[in-house]
Specification:
The chain has about 150 residues and is an alpha/beta fold. The protein has six helices and seven strands; from the N terminus they run αβαββααββαββα.
């Protein structure tokens, strides 16, 4: 399976010019701590990811240093050029890259560089759990057959 099918499609995005206060409020409202920072691609009608910002970025870069959040924008603290995954990349290829980079989430981009979604370890855990349920169901289905064969 490729990561374009597995990723969360409705990723919340912000612009580099958004204030940190706006982003913090959006994080609280949406109950998420990771946004993809996008820039509209001129004339293409798509948004291209240029970075990411996390709740941790805000805490470490701003709150931990007692900086006035009224004056800061996303572009001041975001991670530029994060690791991206191509929608056509396989899970088997993406997971080791994420582990090596020590990231739990990556933006997924399409063939034109447009944002497709966000792949997280949660998406992978859900897929693995679904596969495990199928295995358990198969095992449970075999038990009546085994009992009938013993009779």
């Amino acid at each position: 399976m490729n990561i374009g099918r597995l990723c969360q499609k409705n990723a919340i995005t912000v612009l580099p010019s958004n204030s940190l206060n706006e982003v913090a409020e959006l994080m609280r409202q949406e109950r998420v701590g990771y946004f993809v920072v996008v820039q509209p691609a001129n004339g293409e009608g798509i948004c291209k990811p240029i970075g990411v910002i996390t709740g941790r970025d805000i805490v470490v870069s701003v709150v931990g240093r007692a900086v006035d959040t009224q004056k800061l924008r996303v572009e001041d603290v975001m991670t530029l050029d994060p690791m991206f995954g191509l929608a056509t990349d396989s899970i088997e290829m993406s997971l080791p890259k994420m582990r090596k980079a020590c990231v739990r989430r990556i933006p997924v981009i399409g063939s034109r560089g447009e944002l497709v979604g966000v792949l997280s370890f949660d998406n992978l855990f859900d897929m693995i759990a679904g596969e495990m349920r199928k295995i358990v169901s198969t095992i449970h289905g075999e038990r009546p057959i085994e009992r009938m064969m013993k009779s």
